[in-house]
Specification:
Blueprint (H helix, E strand, L loop, with lengths): L2 E9 L4 H14 L3 E6 L3 E3 L10 E10 L3 H14 L16 E7 L4 E3 L2 E3 L8 H10 L4 E2 L3 E2 H4 L2 H4 L8
Antiparallel strand pairs: 1-4, 1-5, 2-4, 3-4, 6-7, 8-9
């Protein structure tokens, strides 16, 4: 069975554009995953401690035969292959590649290490804006329609253009 997943992808270290595009290619090359739509890339202030470089962020829609936990494991392995070290203990620190599972079909999942929809989705305009560009009618379980979560004036004003 094929499922639809929405992911966030970001980078604020190194060759950010190249890393995002290579990360998307790696996802598309993974068995059981097809990248069906990709948003424009936007540049925003990073989340986390001060002193980090500006972040590039985008969203993508995936068609996948993988179950949510397996998809997350594939995403984490791709992050590791780009030098991401989540074991360092610093949350929201600088990262070469950040892949977040935002939505998976209409499922609500609360398991250790896997919460879907992403628990911070409603608070992250740098994710909602790009997601609204590719899936404005997407219903986020428990939150509603992406179009209503990310109105034009509210979510795009902080972006520095199509980076």
């Amino acid at each position: 069975m094929t499922h639809t997943a929405a992911i966030g992808i970001g980078s604020n270290l190194g060759p950010r554009h190249a890393t995002i595009h290579a990360g998307l290619r790696a996802l598309g090359d993974a068995r059981g995953v097809r990248v069906s739509r990709v948003s424009p890339v936007v540049e925003t202030e990073p989340v986390g401690p001060p002193g980090q470089g500006l972040a590039l962020n985008a969203c993508a829609l995936l068609e996948t035969t993988l179950e949510p936990r397996t998809l997350l494991e594939v995403m984490l392995e791709i992050e590791r292959s780009f030098g991401r070290d989540r074991s360092a203990g610093e949350r929201w620190g600088p990262r070469t590649l950040d892949l977040d599972l935002l939505v998976y079909d209409d499922r609500v999942i609360e398991e250790p290490g896997l919460v879907v929809p992403h628990p911070e989705l409603a608070n992250r305009t740098f994710v909602l804006g790009p997601l609204a560009w590719i899936a404005p009618g997407l219903i986020v379980p428990g939150l509603g329609c992406v179009r209503k979560l990310a109105p034009d004036a509210g979510c795009r004003s902080e972006f520095r253009g199509n980076a």
